[in-house]
């Protein structure tokens, strides 16, 4: 038996990952080894057992272990990673380091400015305030393009579609001093050395390390040479914008791209078509980074809070490492020049330092004032980490938090090295291990980590229960690394001679070009054969090939004959046609398009065969026996040049005829708020509406009379959004106090709060068919809530600025958001991911309006062409609403096709939604006692009928507008034998251009009595019967139609018939002065011309 001192000494020593437990008896102590499952993680690399000197005395081991504990504690206690910050004019949206100069970094912002900084001296070398119009999204230093004296060049890319090259080493003297770069030199005017124009707004740019070429990414990848003005290659694949693009540091022809459709694709400029493979991930990737030492390793930063490490030789096999510690979307990542450490930053406002072989971060940096991180990069010497955030600061951090900066003598350096060796030797043992793993995190990060762990554990439990209750063999557990890839896709390159498989990177020879062309022509001919109804080849017997063609169509093109439901829904309004009717219309349109190739009518569609041949290719065409043109192409003398042959549908551009809309006029001005009226909402029953204002109150008004019914208080700041549920008696409100409240309208009390936004909440919307609430605000995210349980359903991340507008509808995309980053995003509600990002706007998007019956919506921003119409579900651009040159704060749209736009300068416009043409413009007039500067429109909405418009104004008032009802007084004689010579009078009250609101009338020369009815009635006013029950004659809806020039015509004589009605005693009187217009009633050949008076 050993003595007590030996047992105590042995208790201080343990193996990796183990802890000792003592069982004490009367005369001895028994040592037992216990292990905790929480000590390690599956992705962690187990530290090896270290015993450098087995012959060391037990006392020496205890002494060394104590020193290791003290060293690790001192390292954590005195770690100060933050060094300093360089203030930038705006949020840092782009960052690039100069590989030729240590400590030189370029940054860019959202207002078009870029700057180059010297990090050691924190001096600005160059500042260009108006380098681009709008956001400068990405920067890259040119590694091969230098001036004669060796100056570097900087490439900047923006959402204005331009790529510009700048002199990155500005050393010219702009002032009186000589040879000294100061603030005067940095701010001197500088023009770009060269400019390129891309096909769309550029999201990212990357430069080749070995050649003077660079690549840009938007909705396509374009490869440029610095000596040319046009792209040398353009690659397209996918349905969304590309968010990240990087050249390989060693293989100068390989590129990696990440897109909004959750794909990561590899491209090779040596291969025709470019793409060599693609994988589909569960979440979108925001950034990519190649390992500088092992170029086959690719790092990606995802929206699911994780980083993924891929081997590009076998990306379909899943990620080889997953890094999990972030609690929000990771926006940027970078490798250290040594290739062993990783730095990342995201929306959780922290910087994480990782070891390549460990799935948990080794350190976490944060400050109180730092906001969301946009860019993270290592310095060239691997000692510092540079971060750019949207709070307008470029921050400098130590790569190792406890490393001492400055000069050290040999004795101090040896002491630091000895402490480091102790910490490494005992890093997996006892208290040293606990100290090394300890993180001083903010409370918000700790709470978010606990919540994330709970959600992950719940998902694992759900999957395990699903497997337990499923038949054996049906489901198998899948590792996290395997789940990182949903699908692997290999692109078939039609006109390339070699295709490279991403899994094996082996070359496969494709068929010859002639074989591919013949096969494509054959398939295209068979696809449209069913609609042509004539043979495409002269002399072909239809009866002989009928069974053969139908069999091929059934096998190969079963799903291609009819459009899918999502596309067929675009052909018209919702709920108007059945699927069968849509299919018949599509088939008829296809037939008309094909036959329209010989038609002369300008409004028909034609389906033509567009051919692009080299000059040495002969073409010939033959005509079939039945007179129809056949398409026969000859490919003689083909010498390897590219052949582009495709079917294109050409639509003749004809201006659509606008619908008639009545004029609008001010109906009522309501006062009661003590601040700007920022939001308004109408309840589904159309009895009252609610408004929220800067006085922190919510007021409910009677819609018919405008009287105040109720005031609700509870917000401590401006109320910015309101929404009324059409399924429950709930009113939702949000404000700049970060609060989202649910009010019970039966008790007029707050019953729920929705917590999660980190800043002011600016917009909200209720889903029309689901119990979901969507909110958005200044934290650049939109959050989806379960309105009944208050549980967060999704956090929609992807915007880079304040999300100031949100809209919902019952079909995909069910959520639409507009942001200050000048983009509109369409979201998939089921997956919580962005389907499409629309980048057509040049300035911040402040308002959205969804059509109530069609798959379309409008968005408003500032500047020219600031209102745009889009078509769902893909977000196809339709047309602009041009002419309202102001900052559009509000858009409203009713079912009759009237679009209202209100601006911050008080200007208002009414548009025909179908054609985009304005039919009325007016200005908001501030009320007495208000300044002229308070003539602004902040919010607006139509009531449920679409005939009244409610606006919230800067003069603290609410204004209601209504349509000007037109009363048509028709006077004349009738030739009917049953009536003597009399005057026929009719009232035709139009509402929104529709004939749904017709009225019966009783008239005198000075007054018109109006009754609510669904029919327009003609009354005999001149009969001599003397009876009190006068006769009325029915004019059915649709008989009278008004053209754009103001004339009324009887559309169909067969629709009009005569019947008897009796006069009603209850009536109201309407009188007015008439404007004479001529109309012709043609219900019989002998009818005479009638004079029509129009009353307003």
From TrEMBL:
Region called Disordered, residue ranges: 34-58, 451-482, 559-605, 1064-1096
Assembly mode: Associated with the spliceosome.
PROSITE patterns reported for this sequence: WD_REPEATS_1, WD_REPEATS_2, WD_REPEATS_REGION
UniProt organism field: Wallemia mellicola
Annotated localization: Nucleus
Identification of the protein by name: Pre-mRNA-splicing factor PRP46
Transmembrane segments: none
Positions annotated as WD repeat: 129-176, 235-270, 323-355, 366-407, 670-711, 712-753, 754-795, 796-837, 881-921
Domain Sof1-like protein: 399-485
Coiled-coil annotated residue ranges, if any: none
Keywords recorded for this protein, A-Z: mRNA processing, mRNA splicing, Nucleus, Repeat, Ribonucleoprotein, Spliceosome, WD repeat
Protein role: Involved in pre-mRNA splicing and required for cell cycle progression at G2/M.
Predominant location category: nucleus
Polar residues compositional bias, start-end: 587-597, 1068-1096
Similarity field: Belongs to the WD repeat DCAF13/WDSOF1 family.
Classification via SMART domains: WD40 (SM00320)
């Amino acid at each position: 038996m050993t003595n007590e001192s030996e047992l105590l000494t042995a208790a201080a020593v343990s193996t990796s990952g183990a802890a000792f437990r003592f069982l004490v008896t009367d005369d001895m102590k028994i040592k037992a080894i216990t292990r905790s499952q929480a000590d390690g993680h599956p992705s962690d690399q187990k530290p090896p057992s270290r015993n450098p000197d087995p012959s060391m005395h037990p006392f020496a081991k205890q002494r060394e272990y104590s020193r290791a504990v003290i060293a690790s504690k001192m390292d954590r206690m005195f770690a100060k990673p933050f060094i300093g910050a360089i203030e930038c004019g705006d949020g840092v949206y782009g960052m690039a380091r100069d590989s030729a100069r240590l400590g030189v970094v370029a940054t860019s912002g959202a207002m078009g400015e870029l700057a180059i900084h010297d990090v050691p001296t924190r001096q600005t070398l160059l500042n260009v305030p108006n380098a681009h119009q709008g956001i400068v999204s990405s920067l890259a230093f040119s590694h091969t393009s230098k001036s004669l004296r060796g100056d570097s060049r900087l490439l900047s890319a923006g959402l204005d579609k331009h790529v510009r090259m700048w002199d990155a080493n500005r050393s010219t003297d702009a002032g009186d001093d000589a040879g000294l770069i100061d603030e005067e030199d940095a701010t001197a005017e500088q023009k770009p050395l060269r400019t390129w124009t891309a096909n769309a707004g550029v999201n990212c740019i990357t430069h080749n390390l070995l050649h003077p070429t660079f690549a840009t990414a938007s909705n396509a990848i374009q490869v440029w040479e610095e000596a040319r003005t046009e792209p040398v290659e353009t690659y397209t694949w996918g349905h969304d914008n590309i968010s990240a693009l990087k050249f390989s540091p060693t293989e100068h022809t390989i590129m990696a791209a990440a897109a909004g459709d959750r794909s990561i694709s590899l491209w090779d400029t040596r291969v025709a078509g470019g793409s060599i493979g693609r994988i589909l991930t569960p979440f979108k990737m925001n950034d990519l980074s190649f390992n500088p030492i092992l170029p086959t390793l690719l790092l990606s930063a995802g929206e699911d809070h994780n980083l993924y490490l891929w081997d590009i030789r076998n990306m379909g096999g899943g990620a080889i490492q997953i890094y999990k510690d972030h609690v929000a979307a990771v926006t940027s990542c970078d490798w250290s020049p040594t290739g062993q450490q990783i730095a990342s930053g995201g929306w959780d406002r922290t910087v994480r330092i990782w070891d390549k072989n460990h799935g948990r971060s080794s350190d976490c940096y944060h400050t109180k004032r730092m906001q969301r991180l946009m860019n993270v990069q290592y310095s060239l010497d691997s000692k510092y980490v540079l971060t750019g955030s949207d709070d307008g600061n470029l921050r400098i951090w130590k790569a190792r938090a406890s490393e001492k900066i400055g000069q050290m003598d040999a004795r101090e350096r040896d002491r630091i090295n000895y402490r480091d060796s102790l910490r490494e030797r005992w890093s997996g043992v006892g208290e040293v291990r606990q100290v090394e793993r300890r993180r001083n995190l903010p409370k918000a990060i700790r709470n978010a980590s606990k919540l994330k762990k709970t959600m992950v554990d719940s998902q694992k439990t759900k999957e395990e229960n699903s497997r337990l209750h499923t038949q054996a063999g049906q489901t198998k557990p899948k590792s996290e690394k395997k789940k990182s890839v949903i699908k692997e896709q290999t692109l078939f390159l039609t006109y390339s001679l070699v295709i490279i498989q991403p899994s094996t990177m082996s070359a496969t020879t494709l068929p010859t070009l002639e074989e591919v062309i013949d096969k494509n022509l054959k398939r295209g001919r068979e696809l449209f054969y069913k609609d042509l109804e004539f043979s495409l080849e002269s002399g072909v017997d239809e009866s002989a090939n009928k069974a053969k063609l139908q069999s091929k169509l059934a096998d190969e093109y079963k799903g291609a004959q009819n459009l899918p439901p999502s596309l067929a829904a675009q052909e018209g309004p919702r709920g108007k046609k059945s699927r069968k009717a849509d299919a018949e219309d599509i088939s008829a349109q296809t037939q008309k398009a094909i036959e329209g190739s010989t038609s002369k009518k300008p409004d028909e569609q034609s389906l033509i065969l567009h051919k692009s041949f080299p000059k040495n290719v002969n073409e010939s065409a033959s005509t079939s026996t039945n007179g129809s043109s056949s398409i026969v192409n000859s490919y003689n003398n083909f010498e390897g040049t590219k052949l582009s042959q495709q079917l294109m549908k050409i639509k003749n551009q004809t201006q659509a005829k606008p619908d008639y809309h009545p004029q609008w006029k001010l109906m009522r001005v309501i006062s009661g708020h003590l601040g700007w009226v920022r939001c308004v909402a109408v309840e589904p029953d159309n009895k009252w509406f609610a408004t929220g204002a800067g006085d922190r109150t919510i007021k409910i008004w009677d819609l018919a009379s405008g009287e105040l019914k109720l005031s609700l208080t509870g917000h401590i700041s401006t109320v910015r959004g309101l929404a009324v549920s059409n399924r429950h008696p709930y009113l939702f409100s949000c404000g700049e106090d970060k609060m989202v409240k649910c009010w019970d309208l039966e008790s007029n009390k707050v019953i729920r709060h929705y917590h999660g936004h980190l800043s002011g909440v600016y917009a909200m919307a209720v889903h029309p068919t689901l119990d979901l609430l969507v909110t958005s605000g200044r934290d650049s995210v939109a959050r989806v809530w379960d309105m009944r349980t208050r549980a967060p359903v999704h956090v929609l991340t992807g915007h880079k600025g304040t999300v100031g507008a949100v809209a919902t509808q019952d079909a995909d995309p069910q959520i639409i958001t507009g942001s200050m980053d000048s983009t509109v995003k369409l979201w998939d509600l089921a997956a919580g991911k962005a389907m499409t990002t629309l980048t057509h706007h040049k300035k911040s998007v402040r308002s959205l309006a969804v059509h109530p019956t069609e798959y379309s919506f409008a968005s408003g921003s500032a500047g020219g062409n600031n209102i745009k119409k889009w078509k769902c579900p893909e977000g196809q651009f339709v047309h602009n609403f041009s002419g309202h040159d102001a900052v559009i704060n509000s858009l409203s749209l009713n079912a009759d096709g009237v679009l209202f736009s209100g601006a911050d300068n008080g200007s208002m416009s009414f548009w025909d939604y179908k054609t985009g043409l304005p039919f009325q413009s007016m200005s908001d007039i501030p009320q007495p006692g208000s300044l002229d500067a308070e003539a602004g429109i902040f919010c607006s909405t139509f009531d449920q009928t679409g005939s009244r418009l409610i606006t919230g104004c800067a003069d603290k008032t609410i204004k209601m507008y209504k349509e000007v009802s037109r009363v048509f007084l028709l006077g004349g004689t009738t030739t009917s034998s049953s009536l003597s010579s009399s005057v026929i009078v009719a009232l035709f009250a139009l509402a929104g251009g529709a004939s749904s609101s017709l009225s019966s009338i009783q008239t005198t020369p000075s007054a018109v009595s109006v009754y609510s009815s669904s029919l327009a009635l003609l009354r005999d006013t001149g009969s001599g019967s003397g009876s009190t029950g006068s006769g009325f004659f029915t004019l059915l809806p649709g008989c009278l139609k008004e053209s754009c020039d103001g004339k009324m015509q009887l559309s169909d004589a067969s629709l009009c018939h005569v019947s008897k009605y009796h006069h009603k005693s209850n009536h109201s009187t309407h009188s007015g002065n008439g404007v004479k217009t001529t109309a012709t009633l043609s219900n019989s050949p002998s009818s005479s011309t009638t004079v029509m008076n129009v009353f307003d």
